[in-house]
Write a structure and sequence with these properties.
CATH architecture of the largest domain: Orthogonal Bundle
Order of helices and strands: HHHHHHHH
Structural class: mainly alpha
Distance between the termini: 83 Å
Number of strands: 0
Strand content: under 5%
Radius of gyration: 25 Å
Oligomer: single chain
Number of helices: 8
CATH class of the largest domain: Mainly Alpha
Number of domains: 2
Length: about 190
């Protein structure tokens, strides 16, 4: 075999090898880029900044809508705590949904709209409590405190949205206070 033929085959082999390696590297870059975007979206929706927790969320396949739904259930519970939902409470829940990244036309938004028209069954709240109990057991206190702080703050905003008609006394009803206390208990405090 001549040196020229051998050289051409060597070059073809190298090119094939480097093409495969380049393709693998490009795929890894795409995957990392996709994970980074997912991580950023989840951070924005959840308020969680811990990269390890966000990476775990990405690995679990959690989406912005999943995280948002987890955050919205307590707000819906507070809004319906007295058995009725007024326009101010509805607006507060929808504003929070927008902050959590629930977009118009999404399935999460459609579900939320349904919950704002008809009070959800108690089993929804029970499922949320079970889920958050599992989250509390799984993650470090700093992450839980971040989730808790954001969620309880928004829940309190919903409770205060309707408020006292005359502007006197407390803006939060006793039924709303009871739901807020239950939400806090779900985090292992309160």
């Amino acid at each position: 075999m001549s040196d020229e033929v051998l050289g051409a085959r060597r070059k073809a082999l190298e090119e094939s090898f480097f093409h495969r390696v380049n393709q693998e590297l490009l795929e890894n870059i795409r995957n990392e880029s996709g994970k980074e975007l997912k991580r950023e979206d989840l951070a924005s929706a959840s308020g969680i900044e811990d990269r390890a927790v966000l990476d775990h969320f990405v690995e679990l396949g959690l989406t912005v809508e999943t995280v948002a739904a987890i955050a919205i259930v307590p707000l819906v519970q507070v809004a319906w705590s007295d058995g009725k939902l007024d326009d101010k409470e509805r607006h507060a829940v929808l504003s929070a949904a927008a902050q959590y990244g629930i977009a118009f036309g999404s399935s999460a938004r459609d579900l939320l709209s349904h919950w704002l028209e008809e009070q959800p069954a108690a089993s929804l709240g029970e499922a949320w409590h079970e889920y958050i109990s599992a989250v509390v057991a799984e993650y470090p206190a700093s992450t839980i405190n971040s989730i808790k702080s954001g969620l309880l703050g928004r829940a309190r905003d919903v409770a205060e949205a309707s408020g006292d008609v005359l502007g006197l006394g407390t803006k939060i009803s006793s039924s709303e206070e009871a739901v807020l206390a239950e939400l806090e208990k779900a985090f292992g405090t309160g």
